[in-house]
Write a structure and sequence with these properties.
The structure holds 2 protein chains of 2 kinds. Chain A is α/β, with parallel strands linked by helices. Chain A has 30 helices and 13 strands. By secondary structure, chain B is an alpha+beta fold. Chain B is built from 2 helices and 6 strands. In chain B, strands 1-6-2-3-4-5 form a 6-stranded antiparallel beta sheet. Classes of the chains: A alpha/beta, B alpha+beta. At the A-B interface, helix 3, helix 8, helix 14 and strand 13 of A face helix 1 and strand 5 of B.
Chain lengths: ~650, ~80
């Protein structure tokens, strides 16, 4: 019969802990969230003899005195969960940095084994470590490993069942208050209170002396100057060249997310359309078929469509993180972004928000400061995403039907640029305001570790992409699917007697008219007009009238909640045009008039007002779902919705009134 | 002539200087720096600074970290390689 044991993988950030985790568990891993928060823990499995080992990769910590939320969760898990032992990862490249944590973990008196990782990096830097001496001083078994080449992995797996509790003691009993008889109780007490900084200071100072002693006995480094690193780092963090390189990097990320992802996305869309058409030809014309074809399939498409963007964005983020360049980006941008309450790490999510807010919000997980992450998520949807483009294209072409040029610049291009700039400026203004008004729950000590440069390890990149896609499909995907089914219901159903009357009316007409295609389009239009969504559009007409919108625009506002680009499709249905033919739609929209006054509906003022509204309003249910998923707070989702839509409403109203 | 003191806040030290940490004027900052191995009496190297003197990158042994100016203001240091000024 097989046995099972649970181990925690503990280590400092940048100690190669995750690479070691991947080497130990392979693809046998899953992601879970700590209850109530979105900080992830990775759980992996492997088998030794007849024992199934469950290994939990905890977020990296510098010491058992936590500062950030993820550190707090790691320490809490180490102190208070049930497990059979700790695998402590020390960086051979930066042993000084790792030793403090090692001494604290030894003091907890838990079964322990040490993986002295990145042994290759230490060798490159001519760092020599006397492993047997270190093992003797820590009184624990130490396995040298290089997780990238799997060096020492089998040995670590073999020895994991033979671990024991170190008898060494590295804390001064005289420093801790009298009622704490062991170090574990003391740390647990510190977790619940932040009023013991003097004792913490004494403990850290005491341990620092031990760290210096151990390092002096076990670590030596021959003269070594890493000339290339210094040169590369000089240019990448330079006040001018650094920004030039950053711009090129952003361009690459942008190309990947915005343009390259388009090919698989188009392929997915056309495949799903093909699938949908096939289903339509096979299945009988019932309500259930309509649900499958117009509710479930588009819902699944809406989820699957995002996968290429998410995969490519996280591949790029993985490369930036693994290479050590992400930390340099944070360094460069922090001087600018910190004034707006954002982190240097907010740059990548904000820029990728121009492609799509959904993967970009997921990528804010790299921001460790809770307040900065919150502000980034709250302002990110102001960035004009690609779903706004069809709306912009249609409305700009209504304002400027002809191509006009100012020098080299096309007027339509300038208008488009203006809308992108409007989003960026609003994002910065609101970030600044949030920064002023949101009080941090706990003041984080901000620092960025600038790790040494490394060539990204491809296996780690695969794990990053795989895990992020899995999280998206498993969590957010379900909600997006459910919401699109609800929207399908609202836009395809109305009160039963209305539906029946319409059906009877068009059944009679169909027998009288030769061109049934145009009759079908009219039927669809009238169905949508009388649907629950249509009724909702008419109900909100008094609310949107001050912005210059009629009930038809109201319906488009309601349906485009599923995705902004649905605005164009809805307008096409309402104005009985083919979805793909924008020029026909434009002509029909341009000629639309109010039946009572015979005044045109789409005036310059209405078009500008609509453009501003779509640039700034929170008109995307997927984004709201993801925001909820990341913040686990309905309050912030509502605040974000009210602020974005309120600002959009106000500015649209002002522009409509002034023009 | 009055002797010029070379003890100043870390935020005012220019790039390329080696400094000795003399005092850290905030317990939370002190403990957080200790967590990454930076203590009073340690020698640090100011490797680079961002626009407006923030963040400030510091190196100790193999570890390089960057802190913001408001934190660097709380760290008093003595410049060791004054001859390069």
């Amino acid at each position: 019969m097989s046995d099972s044991k649970k181990f925690l993988l503990v280590g400092c950030p940048n100690s190669g802990k995750t690479t070691l985790f991947n080497a130990l568990t392979g693809l046998h891993q899953k992601t879970a969230n700590y209850s109530g928060v979105t900080i992830e823990k990775y759980i992996g499995h492997f088998k030794i003899q007849n024992t199934l080992i469950e290994l939990i990769d905890l977020p990296g910590i510098y010491s058992l005195y936590p500062d950030s939320d993820d550190e707090y969760l790691s320490v809490n898990e180490i102190l208070n969960s049930n497990y059979d032992g700790v695998v402590l990862v020390l960086s051979a490249e930066q042993l000084h940095k790792s030793l403090l944590l090692a001494l604290q973990v030894v003091d907890l008196k838990k079964p322990l084994i040490v993986a002295l990782n990145m042994i290759d990096e230490a060798e490159k830097k001519k760092i020599e470590i006397n492993i047997s001496k270190l093992s003797e001083l820590l009184n624990t078994q130490i396995i040298p490993t290089n997780a990238r080449t799997h060096q020492g992995i089998n040995e670590l797996k073999k020895q994991i069942l033979n671990i024991n509790i170190s008898s060494s003691v590295f804390y001064d009993k005289n420093i801790l208050p009298e009622n704490f008889n062991n170090y574990s109780n003391w740390i647990n007490y510190v977790l619940q209170s932040d009023k013991h900084s003097e004792i913490i200071e004494k403990d850290l100072n005491y341990k620092n002396q031990l760290v210096q002693y151990i390092a002096s006995r076990c670590v030596s480094q021959k003269n070594f100057i890493q000339k290339n690193k210094i040169k590369i780092d000089y240019y990448l963090t330079h006040k001018i060249y650094g920004f030039v390189f950053l711009l090129l990097t952003l361009l690459l990320v942008f190309q990947m997310v915005f343009f390259i992802a388009e090919f698989p996305m188009e392929w997915i869309e056309s495949s799903m359309n093909f699938f949908s058409e096939k289903l339509q030809s096979i299945l009988p014309p019932t309500q259930w078929t309509d649900l499958i074809i117009n509710g479930i399939v588009p819902g699944i498409t809406g989820v699957v469509m995002f996968i290429p963007q998410i995969a490519l964005l996280f591949l790029m983020i993985g490369i930036l993180e693994e290479s050590g360049y992400m930390a340099r980006i944070s360094f460069l941008m922090d001087s600018i972004f910190s004034r707006f309450g954002l982190s240097g790490k907010s740059l990548i999510p904000l820029v990728s928000g121009v492609a799509c807010a959904v993967p970009s919000i997921l990528s804010t997980r790299t921001i460790t400061n809770t307040k900065e992450k919150l502000i980034t998520i709250l302002v990110l949807p102001f960035m004009s995403c690609s779903a706004r483009l069809p709306v912009y294209t249609l409305l700009i072409s209504l304002i400027f039907p002809e191509n006009q040029y100012y020098g080299f610049f096309n007027i339509k291009g300038l208008a488009l640029l203006g809308l992108y700039l409007l989003g960026m400026i609003m994002a910065l203004i609101y970030a600044f305001l949030f920064h002023r008004f949101i009080q941090p729950q706990k003041k984080n000590f901000f620092f960025i570790e600038l790790p040494s440069y490394k060539i990204p390890y491809w296996k780690n990149l695969i794990f990053i992409v795989w895990n992020k896609v899995k999280v998206f499909v498993g969590d957010a995907g379900k909600i997006i699917l459910a919401v699109s089914i609800i929207l399908w219901y609202l836009s395809s159903h109305s009160f039963p007697d209305v539906e029946k009357k319409l059906y009877e009316k068009y059944s009679v007409l169909q027998k009288q008219v030769a061109n049934t295609d145009s009759l079908n389009v009219l039927y669809k239009t009238e169905l949508l007009e009388n649907s629950y969504a249509g009724k909702l559009g008419k109900t909100i007409e008094p609310l949107i009238h001050p912005l210059g919108y009629d009930w038809k625009i109201g319906i488009a506002l309601v349906t485009s909640f599923a995705a902004r680009e649905v605005f164009v499709g809805t307008m096409a249905t309402l104005y009985s045009a083919n979805d793909d033919d924008v020029s026909t739609l434009r002509e029909r929209i341009q000629s639309a008039k109010y039946p009572d006054t015979h005044q045109p509906v789409f005036t310059l003022a209405t078009n500008v007002s609509l453009l501003i509204y779509y640039a700034l309003a929170m008109q995307c249910i997927s984004t709201m779902v993801i925001v909820y998923r990341e913040l686990r707070s309905v309050k912030w989702v509502i605040i974000q919705f009210l602020i974005m839509t309120g600002t959009a409403y106000l500015l649209a109203f002002i522009s409509y009134s002034l023009i | 002539m009055e002797k010029k003191s070379n003890i100043l806040p870390l935020s005012k030290v220019s790039e390329g200087k080696k400094v000795l940490v003399k005092d850290i004027k905030n317990a939370v900052v002190k403990n957080n720096l200790s967590r990454v191995g930076i203590f009073v009496d340690n020698e640090l190297f100011v490797t680079k600074k961002g626009w407006g003197n923030s963040p400030i990158a510091l190196q100790k042994d193999e570890l390089e970290i960057a802190i913001r100016k408001d934190i660097a203001d709380l760290i008093e240091v003595e410049i060791l390689n004054l001859s390069n000024e």
